[in-house]
């Protein structure tokens, strides 16, 4: 079945309660929607966004089965296989052998960890916002392995490679996406 946003949100919040995880899900949802429009997949935007929203469905409760348990939970909920494949593919190489094939899956793989890094960098700014962040300062945070150590630089770099982009392009576009969507992300979270 094809899900709408309300059904996807209900599924997400059935297994996720932590504000941190919900913020991440909403951030990736909006960033994926931005990329869909930016890369010429505008008519697929709802699908891209929902993949972003649901990509970590199982992470809060089953971190050791991440991207494995989510497939089972989604099948139980009647989620379409294309979405199950897409969300599972961001665990490629470390949790599952579902390789990102479609450009959307490659974008998810590349931006998942990166949105976390950018979000952490924003919190260090006096503005607490990405609005005044520049690529130069983001690159500095990216190179500092101690900063947001949980965000895998290797995954981000392989994501850029999968897309055939250089790292700067990935960093710049993801930062742009988060800047463009910051208001909408905060608005969505304020409704929780």
Coarse morphology: globular
Report the uncertain regions: none
Beta-strand content estimate: under 5%
Structural class based on helices, strands and sheet pairing: mainly alpha
Roughly how many Å apart are the termini?
26 Å
Q: Got a strand count?
A: 0
Radius of gyration: 15 Å
How would a textbook summarize the main sheet?
Answer: none
Mean pLDDT, all residues: 96
- The percent range for helix content is 55-70%
- Element pattern in H and E: HHHHHHHHH
What is the number of independent domains? 1
SS element count, helices: 9
Word description of this protein:
- This protein has 192 residues and is mainly alpha-helical.
- The protein has one domain.
- The chain is built from 9 helices and no strands.
- Helix 2 (19-38) runs antiparallel to helix 3, helix 2 crosses helix 9 (167-190) and helix 4 packs antiparallel against helix 5.
- It is globular, with a radius of gyration of 15 Å.
- The two termini are 26 Å apart.
- The mean pLDDT is 96.
What structural keywords apply?
mainly alpha, globular, 192 residues
Secondary-structure blueprint of this entry?
Elements: H1 5-15, H2 19-38, H3 45-54, H4 69-76, H5 81-88, H6 103-123, H7 135-143, H8 153-163, H9 167-190
């Amino acid at each position: 079945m094809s899900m709408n946003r309300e059904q996807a949100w209900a599924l997400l919040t059935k297994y996720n309660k932590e504000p941190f995880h919900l913020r991440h899900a909403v951030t990736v949802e909006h960033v994926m929607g931005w990329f869909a429009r930016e890369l010429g997949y505008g008519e697929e935007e709802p699908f891209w966004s929902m993949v972003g929203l649901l990509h970590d469905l199982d992470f809060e409760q089953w971190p050791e089965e991440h991207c494995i348990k989510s497939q089972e939970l989604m099948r139980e909920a009647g989620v379409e296989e294309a979405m199950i494949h897409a969300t599972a593919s961001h665990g490629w190489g470390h949790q599952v052998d579902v390789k990102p094939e479609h450009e959307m899956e490659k974008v998810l793989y590349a931006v998942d960890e990166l949105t976390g890094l950018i979000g952490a960098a924003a919190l260090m700014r006096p503005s607490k916002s990405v609005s005044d962040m520049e690529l130069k300062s983001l690159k500095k945070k990216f190179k500092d392995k101690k900063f947001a150590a949980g965000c895998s630089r290797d995954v981000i770099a392989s994501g850029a490679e999968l897309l055939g982009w250089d790292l700067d392009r990935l960093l710049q576009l993801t930062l742009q996406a988060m800047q463009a969507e910051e208001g909408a992300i905060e608005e969505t979270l304020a409704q929780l």
